[in-house]
Design brief:
peptide transmembrane transporter activity; lipoprotein; about 550 residues; 8-stranded mixed β-sheet; SBP_5_dom; 4-stranded mixed β-sheet; Dipeptide-binding Protein, domain 3; Dipeptide-binding Protein, domain 1
């Protein structure tokens, strides 16, 4: 794209930021499920100052943008719900400040030599917030509830499928009694896996693996709908109040097993949808934290915040991409898909639009998981090669020229700016007219799910564990989060083989081969790899921000100021 067009686009983006800031009192709207300079490069934690003195008032206020769709660990499937659940519940393990799993509800973990059997010892004195004991049976019953075919809205049940017999039970092809979850006694839980997997302890730290007080849940099927005596938890914080579509307040759990290391007394979670309004609240001292992983910082605010050193940027395991509908022409043709993918100037996008140190993406698996993917599988902005693919694709389709193509995206300032830039790139490089289509998130998801699109913006972040298969398995079969309508028996076979491979080097080779096959087919056009972009007040200390795009408040505190 020439300099004149870039300048025009940037002027539009800047103007959008000014306009939205002026209209900052509008906080209505729905949220999304997933979403050099003087910049402070975070080491995955908030500023740490061992000499800092704790303030008398240990209260933190953040913005989670929207109402969490579900605060039931077995039903949740979005990042907003995760932001709350990870503070009020705890699994057998918890991800520590370094991103590694550490013992939590389990005081001891024994792994068999073949790495297929895990024996967890439940921590002494582990109790629910209502005083009920937490036992091995608690975890067994909670996991089997998710796997019960009759349990509704359990979209992430597949995260339990590494457990022997779990998938068959969920599909109604096996019995819950045959699932590899055995309670030896109140303190001992034995879990048998189908195959050894290197990330199982990360899974046991994720919300689908959290326990639920079954006694309460059986008495009140809507126990998770509101704060109150029935919302029983076991994490470092309690759900004190929940004003729907307005505010959530968490309080420190005095009965938490590690409460002496929890310093925050109150966490207030506001629900302000407009990011410019949230920025104004942050500037006025009404928020202590802005940006990842709860909401976004306005594009226009990023450069000055980088300049004054108030912005934190850290790696995040996520990929921003354009999905091609491989069942709708001209994207039924692999060479056409390649032409469109190679004709994107990713470096220009991350340097001139997003400006958050995102990494240009020429692969599916992000560099936060595979560092070697920085160069990817093709050259960025390779217009000459794109034209070669275009010519070949047009010939195979029997076309002289591409018809008008529709590029869809969900309502968002950055998505709109990127789409406008790509529209110009494709026109200039491929001589194709691109129509932009903007829809609200829920409508947009329906559009993609029904296949009523040609090219659509999407993103995928690793919310559970850091492993290449987290990204590769999205496209194993059509459906779920795979909106491309592309699937391959060979690709699926490589992933299945990798699940059985015990040698780490051999397993990586299988996954690399799968990604190579995927990128050769190009059902998506990766654009960039995400980063966490956030700011917090100087007095906010030791808040852990990880590559998974999650935040831990367990170790955080407010310093005297």
């Amino acid at each position: 794209m020439n300099r004149k067009k870039w300048s025009l686009l940037l002027a539009i983006v800047f103007a959008m930021g000014i306009f939205l800031a002026a209209c900052g009192d509008d906080t209505s709207g729905e949220g999304e499920k997933s979403k050099g300079d003087n910049t402070q490069q975070s080491d995955d934690r908030g500023d740490d100052n061992s000499d800092a003195v704790l303030a008398d008032d240990q209260s933190l206020t953040v913005n989670i943008k929207t109402e969490p769709p579900s605060l039931h660990p077995g039903k949740a499937s979005d990042n907003t719900s995760l932001a709350v659940l990870s503070q009020v519940f705890e699994g057998l393990t918890r991800l520590g400040p370094d991103g590694e799993p550490q013992k939590a509800m389990a005081s001891d973990i024994d792994i068999s030599d073949d790495k297929k059997t895990y024996t967890f010892t439940i921590r002494d004195g582990a109790t629910w917030s209502n005083g009920d004991p937490i036992t091995a049976q608690t975890f067994a019953d909670s996991w089997k509830w998710v796997l019960n075919p009759d349990s509704p809205d359990t979209d992430y049940a597949y995260r339990l499928y590494p457990i022997k017999g779990a998938e068959a039970a969920k599909n109604g092809e096996g019995s819950l009694d045959d699932v590899g979850i055995t309670v030896k006694d109140d303190k001992t839980l034995v879990v048998e896996l189908n195959n050894p997997i290197p990330y199982f302890l990360e899974l046991t730290a994720s919300y689908t693996y959290y326990p639920v007080n079954q006694n309460v849940a059986k008495k009140n099927k809507d126990w998770d709908a509101n704060a109150g005596e029935d919302y029983v938890t076991n994490g470092p914080f309690l759900l004190d109040t929940w004003k729907h579509k307005n505010q959530i307040v968490l309080k420190k759990n005095p009965d938490y097993w590690d409460s002496e290391n929890v310093h925050l007394e109150t966490i207030t979670m506001e629900m302000v949808d407009d990011e410019n309004t949230a920025k104004q609240m942050y500037d006025n001292g009404k928020l202590d934290w802005i940006g990842s992983p709860f909401d976004s910082i306005p594009l226009a605010a990023i450069p000055p915040m980088k300049q004054d050193g108030s912005l934190n940027i850290s790696p995040m395991a996520g990929t921003y991409y354009y999905s091609f509908n491989t069942e709708m022409e001209p994207f039924t043709n692999k060479n056409i898909r390649k032409a469109f993918a190679l004709a994107i100037n990713r470096k220009g996008i991350v340097e001139n639009i997003t400006k958050g140190d995102q990494v240009p993406g020429m692969a599916l698996v992000p560099t936060a998981v595979w560092e070697g993917n920085k160069d990817g599988y093709f050259k960025d902005n390779d217009v000459e090669k794109a034209k070669e693919y275009l010519e070949k694709g047009l010939d195979e389709l029997g076309l002289d020229k591409l018809p008008t193509v529709k590029l869809s995206y969900n309502t968002n300032e950055a998505h709109a700016a990127i789409a406008q830039a790509v529209q110009d790139m494709w026109k200039e490089s491929l001589d194709v007219d691109v129509q932009l289509n903007n829809e609200e998130w829920n409508v947009y998801l329906d559009t993609l799910s029904e296949g009523n699109y040609q090219v659509g913006r999407m993103g995928w972040t690793a919310s559970f564990f850091l492993d290449p298969i987290y990204f590769l398995e999205v496209f194993e079969t059509v459906g779920g989060n795979n909106y491309t309508n592309w699937e391959s028996d060979e690709y699926a076979s490589l992933l299945e083989e990798s699940r059985k491979e015990t040698d780490e080097t051999a397993r990586e080779e299988l996954l690399r081969e799968a990604e190579q096959l995927f990128m050769d087919e190009m059902p998506i056009a990766p654009i960039y790899f995400y980063t966490n972009i956030y700011a917090h007040k100087d007095y906010v200390k030791d808040v852990s921000v990880g590559k998974l795009g999650t935040v831990q408040f367990k170790w955080g505190y407010i310093a005297e100021h």
